[in-house]
Amino acid sequence: MAQPPLVLIHGLWDTPRLFNRLGNALAGRRDPLVIPHLHHGLGHVPLIELAARLDQHINQALGPATTLDLLGFSMGGLIGRAWIQELGGHQRTRRFLCVGSPQRGTLTAQPVPRALLAGIADMKLGSPFVRGLQSSLQHHPERLATLDCRSFYCRFDLMVIPSWRGVLPVGSVEALPARTHPGLVNEPRSLARLSEILLGP
Fold first, then answer.
1. For residue 1, what pLDDT is reported?
2. Distance between CA atoms of residues 89 and 144, nearest Å
3. pLDDT value of residue 6
4. What is the pLDDT of residue 2?
5. How far apart (Å, rounded) are the C-alpha atoms in residues 116 and 131?
6. pTM for the full model?
7. Angstrom distance (rounded) from CA 21 to CA 12
8. Which residue stretches of the chain are H helix?
9. CB-CB contact of 33 with 23 (8 Å)
10. Are residues 92 and 65 in contact, defined by beta-carbon separation less than 8 angstroms?
């Protein structure tokens, strides 16, 4: 059975090149790959606005109804979750993978003023954005519960702090054998594990 299209969402200060090694590891076995470039203004753009831009990219690339799998790295996992929960993405998403994503916020974002860098401030512990996603899920649990949700984290992550809280509130949780935050998507053993999952049923 053919796999659905795979959408990859990069994080803060990243570009689609972040996924070059993952794309090579998949070796064309998950085409089409959709890897939008979400211009975040170094963290200035609010995450819900980036989710709306993601929606535009997906619809342009795949149309409005194609079933897909979604992988979000770091901030990209929050953007993907906002798209799923708030913009109707749950209606067409089969599998949602969050990799090193501050789903409950991260201490590294705490000092950032929202007036200057709204997108980074959205990732604070207890931010209105983070609390809004949790509240939305309480009212509409099916928007994640009906998906195959999987979270992956790095025990030594210095970007998502505490690292073990960087997971979705539903689905499986797994620590990847990465030594650093970016290593989650570019170190060989982490790539091998992610590829195994993305190529599986």
1. 61
2. 10
3. 98
4. 80
5. 20
6. 0.96
7. 18
8. 20-26, 47-62, 75-86, 118-121, 128-139, 142-145, 188-199
9. yes
10. yes
Place of tokens 């980036």: 50
* Alpha carbons 197 and 184: distance in angstroms, whole number: 14
Amino acid at site 94: R
Full pLDDT tens readout for the chain, 201 residues: 689 999 999 999 999 999 999 999 999 899 999 999 999 988 999 999 999 999 999 999 999 999 999 999 999 999 999 999 999 999 999 999 999 999 999 999 999 999 999 999 999 999 999 999 999 999 999 999 999 999 999 999 999 999 988 999 999 999 999 999 999 999 999 999 999 999 998
Do the beta carbons of residue 161 and residue 113 sit within 8 Å?
A: no
Q: Domains plus CATH for the chain? A: 6-199 (3.40.50.1820)
The two three-digit tokens of residue 26, written as one number: 């998949």
CA atoms of 130 and 9, how far apart (whole Å): 18
Give dist(CA 74, CA 153) in Å, integer.
10
Are the C-beta atoms of residues 126 and 107 closer than 8 Å to each other?
no
Question: Closest by alpha carbon to 163, among 123, 107, 119?
Answer: 107
Q: How far apart are CA 110 and CA 62, in angstroms?
A: 37
Structure tokens at 126: 């207890």
Q: Which helix (H) or strand (E) holds 69?
A: strand 68-73
- Give me 82's structure tokens: 């906002």
Q: Are 11 and 74 in contact (CB under 8 A)?
A: yes
